[in-house]
């Protein structure tokens, strides 16, 4: 090596040049990768804003179910693609930026250090050669010194050259593996990205095809509708409206408690006596008007029972009439004589109706042994809306086994199956979504809103509980649980075998099933009666004797009829007697109760377990629902229990009705999420809403109304849930039922008052949902309904 030829040095210099060019190109590639990732993040940010715009458009299109549902589904799919893009850019950062940058900083740095050592020892060897050549012949000590230095330098040079050549060979070999490995990883990331996108849009394609067919029909229908409208427009222009002004200007017997509404001119009480055109309405024994439909109504007459109405002929304007109350007089003008007569008649009818209702109320209160203590007390606490994002994530992830994906073990899952009660990674969530909602309902733990009862359902189950059921025989049959790195096809096959075919569920023997059913039927003393497992009811304070005003005691019956805004105020301001301090208990407001209240009556429908003809998973689900045991309910469904199983030996009751009897809001939510029929009736014609009303379970009533329960259904005694709640004087349930009915009517109505209902309706139901899930004792204040005893 000490006599390195020109070829060797030329090769080293060529390699050094190649390494310099490689470093330059790798630096450039890393910078381009960083630019690509930054551009991708900017694209994702803009894409998220676009998806949010689609969601807002869907939310604003709630009157068109097709647009709302389709846009919501499209937004969900586009959000999935954003998630896939994020994963792709993260992989690019790991494979290109991080890996190649490490190669440049570590391996190329070692090569440069070796080159420095090589250059340094080469210079030292050249200096030693020069010094050796210059040593004079006659000076023996200088010759020896120069020879020794040259020998030592050559020895060091040989070692450094060997190390340098080794470093060159290592670098050449590693360059190939590092570059190909990083690029191959990047290409596989693209492959996964496009596979995920293909699977996602394959699921969406049937909906897109369906919408395409609907759009073709919509174009045809729109053209036909345009021709019809043009024809009607032409007909209307030729029509004489002189006799139809009454129909065009006001509504009689309108929905939502409005007896009459329409435009009137109102004379101001100022010195100028100006006339202003306003929208007037008669509702709930009041005369009110609005300047704009979105304004809060201004009350002209508080109580029509104290008023009279008469023609007003002593002023210059035509068609005027006067409404006179004990405190003021209001002069109004209609647009025609027919309208004036109609308004006068409507006011007179409202006065008569108000007096008739007052008499009925007094008669009804005489038959009552107690009165309502008022509406729900919100306690002045700030409302807690549906949980979203990190709050839901933290609570669900704290449950045993939920920190990893239920099916493949991927850490930090961000998705959940709400009907199974498990957490999932993004890949497994896509597979679950492809199974269909009858097997798994997928929701994001960070992107979606979570209602309190749904969050409690997730916390009652969890990956540990569900895997004990659905993977009980996995090791026994010799099937390996997949890992996150396994191919998607293998994970998908495992999930289908687990949840669709249920290959790993251990079926119970007849004796095991019998033992389970008997055990569930005996839990918490359920054999003695359903009243024993209800939350304790504190005895109400005994108020001072005070005559009850008619207006106050009507709250239990008329509830929120004054309008949704009035209900909101009632909920926010009326305290419960249960929440009053002892010093204040003696001074109950005019919503007075009788001097004494009888103790709550026990439920008449005693749950007695009798030996059935046959033990089945449906029977296990039946008693597990009553026992409030969600793991046993999930186990029964895994065994093949029908969620709407009917117990023909027990009045044709269903598991959902038994969950009502058990008093568990979460058990009801679990059954509903697993496709339980919220309107299925028993042999008495009573559905879950009837039973929840009978037992005074306000939270369950709220849940069933949100899930589409029919509040107009009657039992065999022709009793509806509302009539039961009114008979029991349960103002909370009356409020919920009337609110739901009002909201339903607002959706169907085409009048001017429909704008203000939905938001208030949602707010009040969210208040009830929150209290039912987190403060159930606040809802537990009323007697249960005592249904009539049939012979």
TrEMBL record:
Q: Which domain of life is it from?
A: Eukaryota
**Coiled-coil intervals:** 104-131
Q: Which CDD domains does this chain map to?
A: ArfGap_ACAP, BAR_ACAP2, PH_ACAP
Q: Name one GO molecular function term.
A: GTPase activator activity
In this chain, the stretch annotated as Disordered covers: 358-388, 511-581, 772-791
Q: Which PROSITE patterns match?
A: ANK_REP_REGION (PS50297), ANK_REPEAT (PS50088), ARFGAP (PS50115), PH_DOMAIN (PS50003)
Q: How does it sit in the membrane?
A: Peripheral membrane protein
Q: List, as start-end ranges, the regions of compositional bias called Low complexity.
A: 370-379
The ANK repeat units are at 651-683, 684-716
| Known role | GTPase-activating protein for the ADP ribosylation factor family.
The protein here is known as Arf-GAP with coiled-coil, ANK repeat and PH domain-containing protein
Organism the protein comes from: Esox lucius (Northern pike)
Q: Which gene encodes it?
A: ACAP2
């Amino acid at each position: 090596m000490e006599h390195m030829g020109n070829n060797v040095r030329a090769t080293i210099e060529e390699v050094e040049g190649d390494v310099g060019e490689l470093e330059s190109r790798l630096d450039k590639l890393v910078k381009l990768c960083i630019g690509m990732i930054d551009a991708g993040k900017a694209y994702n940010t803009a894409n998220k804003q676009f998806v949010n715009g689609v969601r807002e458009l869907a939310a604003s299109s709630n009157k068109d179910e097709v647009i709302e549902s389709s846009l919501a589904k499209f937004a969900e799919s586009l959000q999935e693609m954003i998630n896939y893009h994020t994963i792709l850019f993260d992989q690019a950062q790991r494979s290109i930026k991080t890996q190649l940058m490490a190669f440049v900083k570590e391996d190329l740095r070692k090569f440069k250090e070796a080159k420095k050592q090589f250059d340094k020892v080469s210079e030292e060897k050249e200096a030693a050669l020069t010094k050796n050549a210059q040593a004079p012949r006659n000076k023996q000590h200088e010759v020896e010194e120069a020879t020794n230095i040259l020998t030592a330098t050559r020895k060091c040079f040989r070692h450094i050259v060997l190390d340098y050549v080794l470093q060159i060979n290592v670098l050449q070999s590693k360059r190939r593996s590092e570059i190909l490995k990083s690029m191959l990883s990047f290409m596989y990331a693209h492959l996964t990205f496009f596979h995920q996108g293909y699977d996602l849009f394959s699921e969406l394609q049937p909906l897109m095809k369906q919408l395409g067919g609907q759009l073709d029909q919509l174009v045809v229908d729109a053209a036909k509708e345009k021709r019809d409208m043009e024809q009607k427009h032409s007909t209307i222009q030729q029509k004489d409206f002189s006799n139809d002004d009454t129909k065009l200007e006001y509504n009689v017997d309108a929905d939502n408690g409005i007896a009459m509404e329409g435009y009137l001119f109102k004379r101001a009480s100022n010195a100028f006596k100006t006339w202003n055109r306003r929208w007037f309405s008669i509702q709930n024994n009041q005369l009110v008007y609005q300047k704009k439909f979105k304004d809060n109504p201004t009350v002209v007459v508080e109580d029509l029972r104290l008023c009279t109405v008469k023609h007003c002929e002593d002023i210059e304007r035509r068609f005027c009439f006067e409404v006179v109350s004990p405190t003021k007089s209001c002069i109004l003008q209609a647009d025609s004589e027919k309208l004036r007569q109609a308004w006068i008649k409507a006011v007179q009818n409202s006065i008569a109706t108000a007096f008739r209702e007052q008499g009925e109320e007094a008669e009804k209160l005489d038959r009552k042994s107690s009165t309502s203590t008022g509406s729900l007390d919100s306690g002045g606490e700030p409302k807690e809306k549906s949980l979203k994002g990190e709050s839901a994530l933290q609570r669900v992830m704290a449950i045993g086994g939920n920190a990893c994906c239920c099916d493949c073990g991927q850490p930090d899952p961000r998705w959940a199956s709400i009907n199974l009660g498990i957490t999932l990674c993004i890949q497994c969530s896509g597979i679950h979504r492809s199974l269909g909602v009858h097997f798994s309902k997928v929701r994001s733990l960070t992107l979606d809103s979570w209602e309190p009862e749904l969050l409690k359902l997730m916390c009652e189950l969890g990956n540990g509980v569900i895997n004990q059921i659905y993977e009980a025989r996995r090791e026994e049959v010799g099937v390996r649980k997949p890992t996150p790195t396994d191919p998607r096809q293998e994970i998908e096959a495992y999930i289908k075998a687990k949840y669709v075919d249920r290959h790993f569920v251990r079926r119970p023997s007849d004796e095991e099933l019998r033992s389970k059913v008997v055990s569930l039927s005996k839990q918490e003393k359920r054999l003695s009666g359903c009243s024993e497992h209800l939350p304790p009811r504190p005895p109400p304070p005994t108020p001072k004797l005070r005559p009850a005003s008619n207006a106050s005691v009507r709250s239990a019956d008329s509830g929120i009829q004054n309008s949704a805004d009035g209900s909101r105020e009632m909920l926010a301001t009326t305290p419960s007697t249960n929440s009053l301090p002892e010093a204040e208990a003696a001074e109950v407001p005019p919503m007075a109760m009788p001097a004494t209240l009888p103790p709550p009556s026990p439920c008449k429908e005693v749950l007695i377990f009798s030996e059935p003809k046959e033990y089945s998973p449906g029977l296990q689900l039946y008693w597990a629902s009553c026992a409030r045991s969600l793991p046993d309910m999930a186990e029964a469904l895994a065994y093949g229990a029908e969620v709407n199983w009917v117990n023909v030996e027990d009045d044709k009751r269903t598991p959902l009705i038994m969950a009502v009897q058990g008093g568990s809001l979460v058990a009801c939510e679990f059954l509903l999420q697993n496709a339980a029929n919220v309107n299925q009736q028993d042999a008495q014609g009573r559905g879950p809403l009837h039973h929840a009303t009978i037992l005074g379970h306000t939270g369950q009533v709220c849940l069933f109304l949100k899930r589409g329960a029919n509040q107009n259904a009657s039992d065999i005694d022709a009793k509806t849930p509302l009539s039961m709640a009114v008979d029991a004087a349960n103002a909370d349930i009356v409020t919920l039922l009337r609110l739901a009915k009002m909201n339903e009517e607002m959706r169907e109505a085409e009048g001017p008052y429909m704008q203000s209902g939905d938001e208030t309706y949602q707010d009040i139901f969210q208040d009830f949902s929150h209290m039912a899930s987190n403060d159930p004792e606040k809802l537990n204040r009323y007697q249960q309904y005592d249904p009539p005893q049939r012979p």
